[in-house]
Specification:
The complex is a heterodimer of chains A (113) and B (112). Chain A is built from no helices and 12 strands. Chain A starts with a strand and ends with a strand. In chain A, strands 2, 5, 6, 10, 11 and 12 form a 6-stranded mixed beta sheet that branches. Chain A is an all-beta fold. Chain B has a single domain, classed as Sandwich (Immunoglobulin-like). Helix content of chain B is 0%, strand content 53%. Chain B is built from no helices and 11 strands. In chain B, 35% of the residues are buried. The chains are: A mainly beta (113), B mainly beta (112).
């Protein structure tokens, strides 16, 4: 069974703090990993993706994520958060050659100004 | 750039009623998806369509039908609305397999 786990349902930080949102996956084969952000009342928006190459990938608005095959992880990080980063963040995975994305349950990030 | 439009934004129906949600995209993408998002939970795949005239069942297809009328549109029908399926339904499209998903803003379903 292919699964994506986000262990933290809620994370609260102060503006200017760094943050790491965790994602672990259980998948076989070649995998394509991505992060999406959902602001209240909106659809999901793409942040970044990893398939191969440099395990640290850069995304929009200063976000980056690091792939680790040994830990089966793809954690999202930001060095200095802004109040506008408050949203729900979803990790997603799909096998290459497949169309069926699997999403984690999401992590709600609250940034206190 | 493109956009995905979902209509209606809010849908209220009676228990047992047949209800249809619509999705249009102007990205010229081949693949379209319907996801259900329950409060505080992740997304679950209901149906997807790889190309025009294709339909594939997701993990949550029971109780739903879908129709890919043309490349740009993908409809979802709740065959008999139940109170336990009040949720937000999200439509998405992508250029192909394992490509970035682009989402609409959702249809919130309420069943009375």
């Amino acid at each position: 069974t292919q699964t994506v786990s986000q262990s933290d349902a809620h994370v609260t930080v102060f503006e200017g703090d760094s943050v790491e949102l965790r994602c672990n996956y259980s998948y076989g084969g070649s995998i394509y990993l991505s992060w999406y952000i959902q602001h209240h009342g909106r659809g999901l928006q793409f942040l970044l993706k990893y398939y191969s190459g440099n395990p640290v990938v850069q995304g929009v608005n200063g976000f980056e994520a690091e792939f680790s095959k040994s830990d089966s992880s793809f954690h999202l990080r930001k060095a200095s958060v802004h109040w506008s980063d408050s949203a729900v963040y979803f990790c997603a995975a799909v096998n290459t050659g497949n169309y069926k994305y699997v999403f984690g349950a999401g992590t709600r990030l609250k940034v206190i100004a | 750039g493109g956009i995905i439009t979902q209509t209606p934004k809010f849908l209220i129906g009676q228990e047992g009623q047949k209800l249809t949600l619509k999705c249009q995209q102007n990205f010229n993408h081949d693949t379209m998806y319907w996801y259900r998002q329950d409060s505080g939970k992740g997304l679950r795949l209901i149906y997807y369509s790889i190309t025009e005239n294709d339909l594939q069942k997701g993990d949550l297809s029971e109780g739903y039908d879908a129709s890919r009328e043309k490349k740009s549109s993908f409809s979802l029908t709740v065959t008999s609305a139940q109170k336990n399926e009040m949720a937000v339904f999200l439509c998405a499209s992508s250029q192909g397999n394992a490509e970035t998903l682009y989402f609409g803003s959702g249809t919130r379903l309420t069943v009375l």
